[in-house]
Amino acid sequence: MEQSLSRQDTGRIVWLDVVRLVAMFTVVCCHCTDPFNFFPGTSPDIGKIKFWGAVYGAALRPCVPLFVMITGALLLPVSGSSGTFYRKRIGRVFFPFLIWSVIYNLFPWVTGLLGVEPRVILDFFPYAGEDVMRQSFAVSLGYIGGIPFNFSILDVHMWYIYLLIGLYLYLPIFSAWVAQASERAKLGFLALWGVTLLLPYYNEFVAGYLWGTCSWNSFGMLYYFAGFNGYLLLGHYLRHHDWSGRTLLLVGVPMFAVGYAVTFVGFRHMTSLPDYTDEMLELFFTYCSLNVALMTIPVFMLCKQIRIRSERLQCALANLTLCGFGVYMIHYFFTGPSVVLMRTLDVPISLQIPLASVVAFGVSWLLVSLAYRCFGRNTRWVLG
């Protein structure tokens, strides 16, 4: 059902600001689950820690797909020239990405200069290994040298920025097809993309190769319909469609429930195996999987139904849009310590993740907002 988009006088699409708030907060929550799902050391409460990490971790999987859907909803089809688009979009994310990647990777060395115990690094970065614990400048320099190729174990959240730059490079090309494609053609693309969402499970449980993939070819028959470009098109498509409250209740709720059940049960099963690999651990948490898509779509459509009439709330959402990239850049410094704070305060394990997320999200947003207030537009070179 076609629908005119609800905008405020400023031209903002307010419900997309709501989607952004949900995506931003849930990604912070997701990183607050890391000290639970990757708990360093032992504890008499390890069973509860792992359980609640799975409970929240499974529910939070829509966070990244929502970001990509926002991008598709706002930018497809691309207007203007490719050169202008690249300068505006990639230029805004590249410098903050580079600056904060360096800062994160220097952090262990700086803690060594300050005489901080190496184990404190684990409070910040649950994935940190033995090399990081040496607090060596040479190790930090090695990670910094690897930035052109990939993220490190100290700035794990930067994986998304590599993806985002790739999506920006791809968008003007994909846009040419989106601009002239019929609704039927778009649905056909999404249907084929939906098939690819099952491939991670086929490859894990049935066979490693399918539809032309083999030891000398990783690009199978539906490769060009796979990946996050499906979420781009999905965001563009759903922007112009609405679900009634009845549809949300009768279709959306069961979709989310089924997706969540598969994600939670699958993750718990894989992590119960004695020798699970990183790939097995992440299998049911994979963003480009059918179970996660089933959760993401109802969340997106629910956010479309939310009407914000308070001018104060509209201004807050607009401020988060301005600060959102900066919040993403710096929040990973606060997720681990926020969890440590909750444990120090003896907060019940079942509440530690959401409360730690509120602290990490609030502190990150406050700091970025203050930076914009103090330094104005120049802040974008550091915080996006």
Q: Give the percentage of residues in beta strands.
A: under 5%
Helix and strand succession?
A: HHHHHHHHHHHHHHHHHHH
Q: Quick one: overall form?
A: globular
Mean pLDDT: 91
Radius of gyration: 21 Å
Question: How much helical structure, as a percent, in the residues?
Answer: 55-70%
Helix/strand class:
mainly alpha
Which sheet architecture does the biggest sheet show?
A: none
Beta strand count: 0
Uncertain ranges = 1-10
**Count, helices:** 19
Q: End-to-end span in angstroms?
A: 36 Å
Features:
384 residues; mainly alpha; 19 helices; 70% helix
SSE diagram, text form:
Blueprint: H1 14-32, H2 34-37, H3 46-59, H4 63-75, H5 82-113, H6 120-124, H7 130-133, H8 137-145, H9 159-180, H10 183-196, H11 199-205, H12 229-239, H13 245-272, H14 278-282, H15 290-305, H16 311-330, H17 332-344, H18 349-375, H19 380-383
Structure characterization notes:
With 384 residues, the protein is mostly helical. It is built from 19 helices and no strands. The chain has helices at 14-32, 34-37, 46-59, 63-75, 82-113, 120-124, 130-133, 137-145, 159-180, 183-196, 199-205, 229-239, 245-272, 278-282, 290-305, 311-330, 332-344, 349-375, 380-383. Residues 1-10 have low confidence and may be disordered.
